[in-house]
Amino acid sequence: MIKKTTLNNGIRVITERIPYASSVSIGIWVANGSRHERRESNGVAHFIEHLLFKGTARRSSLDIAREIDSVGGVLNAFTSREYVCYYAKVLDKFLPRAVDLLTDIFLHSTFDSEEIEKERRVVLQEINMMEDTPDDLIHDLFHQHFWKGHPLGMSILGDAESVTGLSRDAIIAYKDQMYRADDIIVTAAGNVTHEKLTALLEEFLQGVEPGHGRSESAPPVYERRIELVEKDLEQIHVCLGLKGVQQSHPQRYDAFIMNAILGGSMSSRLFQEVREKSGLAYSVYSYIASHADAGSLVVYAGASPENAKELLEIMLREIGRFKKEPVPAEQLEAAREQLKGNLLLSLESSDNRMSRLAKNEIYFGTPLPLSEIMEGFDHVTSDSILELANEILDNDALTLVMLGRIGTPAFKNSDINV
Question: Required co-factor (predicted)?
């Protein structure tokens, strides 16, 4: 059963009790991410995510690590373009300790100047590591170009210049502004009692200031962009993307199924055509990146320079098929059952249930019943996919980013169409 309570200061607490579970996953979510930063302080949300584990008035960073290890639990965090999450997973009997630990780092981190400088070096190494990992770098480059000129295009990590320029005062000011009660959601799933958790959180989080921290940006404008980035690599890495769907799009289930058919598994069209039939690439897949007001459908693969043109042609052809050919009934049904099965299997994990509660609250303001989601998949037809494909697969919104030893391209920009 899912229950929701709003604390006196505006923080939302949402739980899903799983009485047969022996664990609880709990997360403190802040509905602000890299898209809510200023360009000169890009990367600050991710930097703060690191710094909250570096010590509080009551605990050193070693104390924090030892405490979660001593109960066999997990403590971690992640930053995205639209939210940050700090989470723990522990045996249910240790939930009060996990709440104390999570709220301590969330509210009482000291931001010691020496620790900031040490962690700054860690973040800069993380940026360098991504630069040295082309199959990661290409996705960051793609989003920078796809959302060019819009906050969604800013890197989650920031860059060396912006991270180096972040002062202690700027970091604390950002946290004070953005970590406000109306933007904070606490979700928990597992063997948890809603009333007990709410009482704990009311005590620990009562000092959080009410109100919102972020200012909303206008939705991005889609434009066509072809970007060829020279880098001395053995492969050419290719990211090709078009308009996708925002989180609440009425045809999002059509998009999920279309993506599954395109490149979402080993039986997908791209995997079969690019890897199994042609042997052009080891890794090839597609994914949907959906945000509050926009989205993208992205295809990725890496191939040797001599095969890059053929790879690109297959990508364009397979995407374009959705605009011209109805998906065969057998393929549609297989993708539908694949996604429904993946969802049901994911619900066996309290981590996934906890995350699902938060994302539904952020994007829909309410839990989405499992039956409603299943009905959404069941209502998808070949005609509805064809309709969506002709709406979003727009060549005027196509972005292609290629990374590697490209030299003189073996194609014309005017040939890049789906």
Answer: Zn(2+)
